[in-house]
């Protein structure tokens, strides 16, 4: 067993994973219904590393509340919070009082079963002060490249190269074995990065720094594609299925309290959490993962999708290679297609279609009979009820956004007369002027001309249309009392 300490870097914001990480730190994103960071703790514990420091920055309380002191995982956890981002090296140096022996540093969003014992033996055998765990990657453009000699000694680094700069296929996994003296190069509170600052400095000073190439599974859960593919990899590789506990049938995992009604169709491999209900005539196709306390309605079909906890999917829905976050309610006859992500606490009312690649941020509502083909970030609700009997009205940045206003302007000029003349005016409020600018942009995009009247009223807009013999007019006003 290895008698060293572990550090888990868990301060990342997870921008590329949004909307999964809008209200959830990246290390808490679930893989098979467990936070990805929990697998990192289990990996360290498996190799006898029970003293663990966790570096935090984004939504730290969620991580601390879940893992606590570490006692329920049979480890000892100490937390170190960065008030401002310090880089990978700076975040670990922030745990300065913990760094009194050899440490293994892993990322809180890495999913791996790397044999740390073999890596540590290599580290000791080479007399290394810093050992980087490396892995061969066919397409290495998204990673830092590392070149070693025949003995494993590192001779060159290159961060995220272009194809013309690719000179190696060994990438940096972000897992390191470090001796405490390497941290003497920087002071606590300084912002520095391991790959860009510390390791090149060690190389320059002739400090022994080696690369250990692993053949075990490793994945950086950094974006939606790798997040979905990680689940597929584990379900499809027999050697990795020990991560999923015992299964109830060949390729079917179902947690305690889960009910699969007669007539439901399950096509392995499929993973279902605890206390979920799969109703009659529902169909779960290969590489589907269902969370805890979920309900899948009659006639609904789910394929290659990741469904988090407390999700209610009604009857006759179709979901394809999507990610549905916690506490989402999906009414009947909805269609959700490839690459879609639905943020936590959202509602999809009946008979709507979410087109491929659309991302819906948390706490949104999609109205009935909607076809949504673009991301929904700022609006609270997607609705067909934009047009009234006499006007178009809505809430700024909710039901009427600058993007919608541009489309309104484009539609107006396209339907009435492209390359026409249009009067656009607004009252004195800044919100009105903002929407007016967007509508003008839309009209101009059709090749039409716009006459812009500042701080004016509806009668002035009507007069302008007649006076200038325009093809149409738009007046925008803000209602202060609603």
Task: Explain the overall architecture.
Residues 252-353 form the EIF2B subunit epsilon/gamma LbH domain. Keywords: Cytoplasm, Initiation factor, Protein biosynthesis, Transferase. It is found in: Cytoplasm, Cytosol. This is Nucleotidyl transferase. Residues 5-236 form the Nucleotidyl transferase domain. It is a single chain. This protein is 21% helix and 27% strand. It contains nine helices and 38 strands. α7 packs across α8 (430-444). The mean pLDDT is 87. It has three domains: 5-220, Spore Coat Polysaccharide Biosynthesis Protein SpsA, Chain A; 247-378, Hexapeptide repeat proteins (UDP N-Acetylglucosamine Acyltransferase, domain 1, 3 Solenoid), CATH 2.160.10; 402-476, Alpha-D-Glucose-1,6-Bisphosphate, subunit A, domain 3 (Alpha-D-Glucose-1,6-Bisphosphate, Chain A, domain 3). A hairpin with a 2-residue loop joins β2 (30-31) and β3. With 482 residues, it is of the alpha/beta class. The protein has an eight-stranded parallel sheet, with no helix packed on it. The chain has a seven-stranded mixed sheet with strand order 5-4-1-6-11-8-12, with helices on both faces.
């Amino acid at each position: 067993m290895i008698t060293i300490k572990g550090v888990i870097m868990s301060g990342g914001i997870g921008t590329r994973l949004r909307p999964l990480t809008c209200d959830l730190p990246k290390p808490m994103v679930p893989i098979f219904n467990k936070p990805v960071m929990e697998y990192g703790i289990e990996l360290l514990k498996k190799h006898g590393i029970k003293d663990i420091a966790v570096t935090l920055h984004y939504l730290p309380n969620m991580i601390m509340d879940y893992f606590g002191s570490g006692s329920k995982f049979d480890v000892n956890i100490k937390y170190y919070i960065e008030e401002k981002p310090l880089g990978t090296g700076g975040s670990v140096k922030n745990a300065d009082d913990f760094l009194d022996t050899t440490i293994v540093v892993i990322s809180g969003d890495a999913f791996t079963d790397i044999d740390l014992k073999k890596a540590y033996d290599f580290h000791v055998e080479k007399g290394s002060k810093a050992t980087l765990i490396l892995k061969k990657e066919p397409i290495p453009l998204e990673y830092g490249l590392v070149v070693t000699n025949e003995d494993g000694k590192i001779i060159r680094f290159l961060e995220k190269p272009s194809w013309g700069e690719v000179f190696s296929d060994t990438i940096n996994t972000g897992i390191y074995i470090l001796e405490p003296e390497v941290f003497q190069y920087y002071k606590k509170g300084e912002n520095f990065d391991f790959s860009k600052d510390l390791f090149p400095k060690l190389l320059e000073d002739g400090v022994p720094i080696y690369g250990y190439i692993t053949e075990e599974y490793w994945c950086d859960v950094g974006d939606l594609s790798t997040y979905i593919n990680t689940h597929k990899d584990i379900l499809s590789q027999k050697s990795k299925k020990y991560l999923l506990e015992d299964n109830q049938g060949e390729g079917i995992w179902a947690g305690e309290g889960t009910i699969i009604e007669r007539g439901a169709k399950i096509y392995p491999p499929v993973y279902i959490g605890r206390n979920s209900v799969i109703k009659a005539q529902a169909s779960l196709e290969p590489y589907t993962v269902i969370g805890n306390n979920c309900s899948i309605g009659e006639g609904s079909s789910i394929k290659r999708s990741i469904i988090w906890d407390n999700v209610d999917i009604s009857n006759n829905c179709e979901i394809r290679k999507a990610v549905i976050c916690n506490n989402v309610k999906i009414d009947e006859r909805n269609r959700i297609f490839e690459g879609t992500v639905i943020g936590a606490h959202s509602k999809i009312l009946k008979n709507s279609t979410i087109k491929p690649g659309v991302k819906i941020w948390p706490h949104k509502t999609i109205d009935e009979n909607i076809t949504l083909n673009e991301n929904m970030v700022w609006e609270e609700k997607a609705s067909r009820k934009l047009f009234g009997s006499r006007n178009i009205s809505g809430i700024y940045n909710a039901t009427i956004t600058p993007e919608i206003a541009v489309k309104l302007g484009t539609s107006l000029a396209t339907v009435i007369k492209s390359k026409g003349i249009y009067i656009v005016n607004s009252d004195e409020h800044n919100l009105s002027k903002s929407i007016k600018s967007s509508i003008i942009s839309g009209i101009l995009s059709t090749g039409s001309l716009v006459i812009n009247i500042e701080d004016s009223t509806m009668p002035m807009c009507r007069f302008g249309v007649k006076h200038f013999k325009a093809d149409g007019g738009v007046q925008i006003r803000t209602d202060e009392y609603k």
